[in-house]
User: What shape does this take?
Amino acid sequence: MKIARGIAAGAGLLLLLLTANLFAAAAPAAEKPSIDLAKASKLDQPQAGYYRYKVGSVDVIALSDGTVGLGLFNGIVANASPQKITALLNHNYQKSPIDASINAFLIKLNGKLILVDVGSAKLVGPTAGKLPDSLRAVGVKPGEITDVFITHIHPDHSGGLVSADGNLVFPNAIVHINKKEADFWLSKANAAGRQEPQKSFFDQAEHKVKPYFDAGKAQTFDGATEFFPGFRSEPTYGHTPGHVLYVLESNGEKLRFLGDLFNIKIQLTDPTLSLRFDTDSAPAIAERGKSLEDMAKNGYLVAPAHMPFPGIGHVGRDGKGYRWVAVDYVNDAVAK
Ligand SMILES: [Zn+2]
Assistant: This one.
């Protein structure tokens, strides 16, 4: 039986080969593909980043401005030894330099197109400054943005307001900034005698934020303000003197845009870590600790500016500290 089946199988294979040869003889010579697959592939193209997420009935679109390598052993962590930093990085499966995302957010609300923060332009290096590309990828032109809400005046949050040649990138938008924040960074007296990195922050405020005030396109507000039904600010001072977060609520769901309430994952593991970017570390640490506890306890969605793109998720407890829990990824494209 075994032999007979072997022969039958061999005959079948032969028939298949013969048939294939017949077809080959009848078919015209195979043409070369007209598409150069290597050139057509987008695998080696820069990737614009956007991700749409629903909060209640409101569309929130995370926009990537890029990522930057952030070395943590060059004194940027103000109050931890290299040994402690290493242990915290190991806990998070990270190595220095870490890849920090720069995330901004587009919200369609009340017939308006709102941006929360605007990325860095090229102020933090060539790997960032991609917000205009990400915006283009979702089909929105900068001129269509009606309102820009700045969490704080640092280059990776407000740098994208003005182009390299000095033009307003969002000419039809009102730029909203906490009065405390604008007063601090636009004051020449405050700038005097500052060390880096703070010194550069003042220069950048002059070139990237002041033009909107000069053009009558900037409005200041007091720390806790409701701008539209379901959209308001909350003061969280420390990282900068007028740092705010923004709260979006719709149909019982809530998302808080956190700005730089924390910058890197190891600040969740140990919320007492301070970075040199903090203007005033003691209130920054206090605000961070209080807010993280509230997030973990109440379980609402948060969108920090520097967690891995798209940077929307939750903060949960992790021992004495906290951890980042990204939302599940959903691909809602229609298959063609
Ligand atoms: Zn910042």
In short: Residues 313 and 326 are 4 Å apart (CA to CA). The pocket of zinc ion is lined by residues 152, 154, 239, 260, 277 (CB under 6 Å). Residues 2-26 form the longest helix (25 residues).
